[in-house]
Design goal:
The complex is a heterotrimer. Chain A is α+β, with helices and mostly antiparallel strands. Chain A has two helices and four strands; from the N terminus they run βαββαβ. Chain A has a two-stranded antiparallel ribbon with strand order 1-4. Chain A has a two-stranded antiparallel sheet with strand order 2-3. Chain A is globular. In chain A, about 40% of the residues are buried. Classes of the chains: A alpha+beta, B alpha/beta, C alpha/beta.
């Protein structure tokens, strides 16, 4: 999943509701002065693509992809 | 909604609905409006009505809602959106006007308009966002502000002796025969968001089937004016709003119930 | 000679609107124009058009806003207290450039007032009773025929300038019954690409009168100013009777003009050289014609059914040395030709 960190307002709802708890607050602030959410490096492959983060995001800042396994 | 992205070999599971502009929202962090807007956008996509939808905006935090949808839109005076939508629908039955209103717009100054749109059974859809506060003007009491709840105009908490009681809109409007579908939902959890989307979709389908007035009340967090940070605001909503405003479908006429079963209203 | 039909003023407005292809009517009962609403409740469905009796004048004006924003010719009719409730809606329509027709069959005020005819809403209609800088083309009929003709003209001007137009008769004219020549119906309506008709095969249309930042809104108001200048240049209408040899000129509109006409005839029979200047557009006010007239005529008598509102615009238009008197009734009481004649004689003797 991809977070548009410049659109994110740091409400951290995605972090709270991610069932896999792979999201956390970044250590920098974005252009608007908010602390965006980001995926923890070592947990990137734990995302199941459930889309809950995107569902709870009030700013449509999250796009969820599923990488097709090569046939 | 899965869509194959031809460029890379990946499927996009969740992205901005097609009928929504790329423009970032102006809302505060954690504001429920952002979620509800997206749900409306998703429903407009799924029902393929972007070219017929008319966003009848109201006055409040959602004042320029027409900036965010790729459909025609217009602004109404405070509280008058249901009258504006009534006229548009009467003049153009093929269009799909929906009013997007907050609790100040609908339940305070606009009470007469929403009551009579319901009483006349106008074929319009109203998305009513209840966050129990006046957001845009800085946090004053709304008709839906809870008893003992702080607001900038009830600094000692809302006292009924002075400021009366919060209005339960769904219960009130569901007594009017012109209403076909009235439901109260919320967005304070993934499951709630899914149900909210289902209700919004069914409301639009009610209009498309010309069955009468449809209204969905969405209990929505207002972290800034509740003075609660976004994640906790979702719990605050559950703890304080739900008892006063029970969720559920308050009016489902037979024809709408049939619609619901039809395709499972996924 | 085309055949004439006997008709009440209120009905003439309704039929005029229908002839002008008014597609949507929204109204709320209020004397002295109830017959208009009743007539529309029968005739609009007959024509396959929209009729809604609303919960208030507030809802009515906002329904006109919605219908007109979606490209339909729309109208609401009311009387003074209802017209007051519609001022915010009118300001919104002027701000969002919405063409619409609003009829105010004036009655005695202020407050609940009474149901007699009056002209006490002149300022509200002409100077703008709502908030912000805007003007509304305001037409003043003084006969049942003109109630029909000006209703049709109002729709034409509203579409031409994308601005609300006010039709401003009074209760006496609304109730008066006179023969009327039926006009041919309008068939060709102007295109409205800006209207809210669904973003099908075109970019979306937005209709609003709002910008969060004043810097963005001011240019919009500047455009409105240009529109009002154009209206002032192109749309002034008035009528002059016996002005060539007049030593005293009365200024009057609506049913006050009717009483003034009788008084003028009586004065002329008594050898008094009296003329009448009748503004037909109260906005744009006929400033230039009046000012030119006052180069030669130095004595004016304004006849009004109010405490004196039109007289202010007359004074503003006249040259400094012109003398302006007022003869008036108010509070819903009509003015008689004798009262006016008395005032004429006092001035000219």
């Amino acid at each position: 999943m991809v977070i548009d960190t410049e659109r994110c307002k740091g409400c951290h709802l995605c972090i709270a509701f991610c069932p896999k708890e792979i999201l956390r607050a970044a250590d920098h602030i974005n252009r608007m002065g908010y602390t965006p959410a980001e995926v923890e490096e070592k947990k990137t492959n734990e995302c199941t693509g459930c889309g809950i983060c995107a569902m709870m995001c009030p700013d449509i800042a999250i796009t969820v992809h599923r990488l097709n396994k090569p046939k | 909604m899965a869509r194959l992205n031809s460029k890379e070999a990946e499927t996009i599971l969740y992205q901005r609905p097609e009928s929504m502009e790329a423009r970032p929202f102006h809302f505060c962090p954690g504001c429920g409006h952002g979620i509800v807007f997206r749900l409306v956008g998703e429903v407009i996509d799924e029902l393929k009505i972007r070219e017929r939808a008319i966003c009848v905006a109201s006055i409040g935090c959602s004042v320029n809602s027409y900036e965010y949808f790729k459909c025609d839109g217009l602004e109404s005076a405070h509280g008058r959106a249901p009258a504006v939508a009534t006229a548009i629908k009467r003049c153009h039955p093929d269009l799909v006007p929906f009013t997007y209103q907050g609790d100040g717009d609908l339940a305070a100054i606009g009470t007469a308009e929403i009551v009579h749109a319901c009483a006349r059974g106008e074929n319009i859809t109203t998305i009513f966002v209840n966050n129990a506060i006046y957001g845009m003007t800085g946090g004053q009491m709304a008709p839906t502000t809870l008893l003992d709840m702080y607001s900038t105009s009830t600094t000692a908490g809302r006292k009924s002796a002075l400021a009366g009681y919060p209005i339960r809109v769904c219960e009130m409007l569901s007594t009017l025969e012109g209403t076909a579908y009235i439901a109260r939902v919320t967005v304070n959890s993934p499951a709630a968001v899914r149900k909210a989307k289902q209700a919004i979709k069914l409301a639009f389908r009610t209009q498309l089937a010309n069955l009468g007035m449809s209204l969905v009340e969405v209990l929505s967090p207002c972290p800034t004016n509740w003075r609660v940070e976004p994640v906790k605001a979702m719990d605050w909503l559950a703890e304080h709003m739900l008892p006063q405003y029970p969720l559920g479908e308050y009016k489902v006429i037979e024809a709408v119930a049939a619609l619901k079963k039809e395709v499972g209203n996924a | 000679m085309s055949e004439k039909t006997l008709m009440a003023g209120n009905i003439a407005i309704a039929e005029g609107a229908i002839l002008a292809h008014c597609q949507a009517y929204f109204g709320y009962p209020i004397t002295p124009q109830n017959e208009l609403l009743e007539h529309m409740s029968k005739r609009m469905p007959e024509e396959g058009r929209v009729f809604v009796q609303t919960e208030s004048e507030l809802a009515a004006i906002n329904m006109v806003y919605g219908a007109a924003a979606s490209g339909c010719r729309a109208m609401t009719t009311t009387s003074s207290p209802g017209f007051s409730l519609q001022q915010e809606g009118l300001s919104y329509m002027a701000g969002a450039e919405i063409p619409a027709v609003v009829v105010n069959v004036m009655r005695g005020g202020p407050g609940l007032g009474d149901i007699g005819g009056a002209q006490g809403d002149y300022f509200q209609a002409v100077k703008g009773g709502g908030h912000g800088d805007y003007h509304l083309i305001t037409l003043a009929p003084s006969s049942v025929q003109e109630m029909m003709d000006f209703a049709m003209l109002a729709f034409e001007l509203a579409d031409k300038y994308r601005n609300p137009v006010i039709l401003l008769p009074d209760g006496f004219l609304g109730q008066a019954i006179e023969p009327v020549v039926m006009r041919p119906p309008v068939t060709k309506l102007p295109e409205k690409p800006w209207a809210i008709t669904g973003a099908r095969g075109r970019p979306k249309n937005i209709i609003n009168s709002f910008a969060m930042d004043p810097v963005d809104y001011q240019p919009h108001v500047a455009l409105l100013r240009q529109k009002f200048q154009r209206i002032k240049q192109n749309e002034v209408r008035y009528e002059g009777i016996n002005l060539d040899d007049a030593a005293l000129v009365m200024v009057a509109y609506g049913s006050a003009f009717r009483s003034a006409m009788t008084a003028m005839q009586m004065a002329r029979q008594a050898g008094l050289k009296v003329g009448i200047f009748r503004p037909i557009t109260l906005f744009p006010f006929p400033v230039a014609p009046l000012s030119n007239l006052s180069q030669k005529v130095k004595s004016f008598l304004v006849v009004e059914l109010s405490l004196g509102q039109l007289i202010e615009d007359v004074r503003l238009s006249l040259s400094a040395e012109a003398k302006v008197e007022l003869v008036n009734q108010f509070g819903g009481v009509p003015i008689s030709a004798d009262e006016i004649l008395e005032a004429i004689e006092k001035i000219m003797k």
